[in-house]
Design a protein that fits this description.
By secondary structure, the protein is of the alpha/beta class. The protein has helices at residues 14-23, 37-44, 60-65, 84-89, 102-117, 120-129, 157-166, 183-189, 196-202, 222-227, 245-253, 273-276, 292-310; strands spanning 5-8, 25-28, 49-52, 71-74, 93-95, 149-153, 172-176, 191-193, 205-208, 233-236, 259-262, 281-283. The structure holds glyoxylic acid. The site of glyoxylic acid (GLV) has 6 residues, from loops.
Length: 327
């Protein structure tokens, strides 16, 4: 019996390949350079399944070119690369990988937060330059973390994970979200629900954990940066366009905030040129979920979603199972 054909835009990890290869004839994109849009459209044309990354857009055009497609499985929790409504129109199930990366991403938000507050990368660069003259009283004095106020924007699984870690630092935690968390969660995490305005004004650290939506695009704007404390730091492990990078660069230049640590960018893989030379900015290459265990789990999860569809089951992480009437 011939196996259904699927396309994977990356070779994935062995554990995910094992899941896929039992059931499918898999066309892996293996070159080091990422797949071009043209190549993607060409290769997906005869496929019944697609495993893709957040850098690949699944939109009306792609769906129109892939008449046999039954599932598009992105190996990411964020799914702003997928036009879910278009998938539903084309009767294609869209899936993502929630849950498995929460701890790893929350750990990394903290990595950035600590590193920017305590000027770790400036210190590292100094040591490597061979010019450090030895200890002195006022060298690289940064901001304290312990006992400060953390503002968590977006209080889903990852935002809550970041808040939970703040308990160890005896921080005051403020959060803002479209929906208020249950009382027991607020109690457990010592987190106070506030409006965005108060969060901007009172936080010493603001960590972003919102999805990219029309309402969150450029949430970090001139106006909101102006509300922040001059001593405050911004951490972004969510999606780049949540921050207006030009506004951020200007705020840093005018010392309106103390620093920013970014893992994601408005126009990836580009970074606003004004941020590149700043010492009060840390730039990470979108690696918040990049532990081997977690990235493997994400790939396996995507593979299992694809298998489910061909087994006649509802994929566990579907974004449009209900509109498609999947049981
Ligand atoms: C990474 O950014 C993800 O959405 O998984």
């Amino acid at each position: 019996m011939t196996k259904p054909k699927i396309l994977s835009t990356r070779p994935l990890f062995p554990a995910a390949r094992a899941v896929l290869e039992q059931r499918f004839e898999v066309d892996y994109w293996t070159p080091a350079e990422r797949i071009t849009r043209e190549e993607l459209l060409k290769r997906v044309a005869d496929k019944e399944g697609l495993v893709c990354l957040l850098t690949e857009k699944v939109d009306e055009e792609l769906l129109g070119r892939a008449p046999k497609l039954r599932i598009a499985a992105t190996v990411s929790v964020g799914y702003d690369n997928i036009d879910v409504a278009a998938c539903t129109r084309h009767k294609v199930v869209a899936t993502h990988t929630p849950g498995v990366l929460d701890h790893t991403t929350a750990d990394f938000a903290w990595t950035l937060l600590m590193a920017i507050a305590r000027r770790l990368l400036e210190g590292d660069a100094w040591m490597r330059s061979g010019t450090w003259p030895g200890w002195d009283l006022d060298q690289l004095v940064g901001g304290d973390v312990w006992g400060k106020t953390l503002g968590v924007l977006g209080f889903g699984r990852i935002g809550r994970g970041v808040a939970r870690r703040a308990l160890g630092f005896e921080m005051k935690v403020l959060y803002s979200d479209a929906v208020r968390a249950p009382e027991e969660v607020e109690r457990e995490l010592h987190a106070e629900f506030v409006d965005r305005d108060r969060l901007f004004r009172e936080s010493d650290f603001i960590s972003l954990h919102v999805p990219l939506l029309p309402d969150t695009r450029h949430l970090i704007s001139h106006e909101n940066l102006d509300k922040m404390k001059r001593t405050a730091f911004l951490v972004n492990t969510s999606r780049g366009p949540v921050v207006d990078e030009a506004a951020l660069a200007e705020a840093l230049e005018n010392r309106k905030i103390a620093g920013a640590a970014l893992d994601v960018y408005e126009h990836e893989p580009l970074v606003h040129p004004a941020l590149l030379s700043r010492r009060d900015v840390i730039l990470a290459p979108h690696i918040a979920s990049a532990s081997l265990d977690t990235r493997t789990k994400m790939a396996v999860m995507a593979a299992n979603n694809v298998v489910a569809i061909f087994d006649g089951r509802r994929p566990p992480n579907s974004l449009n199972a209900d509109p498609l009437g999947l049981k």
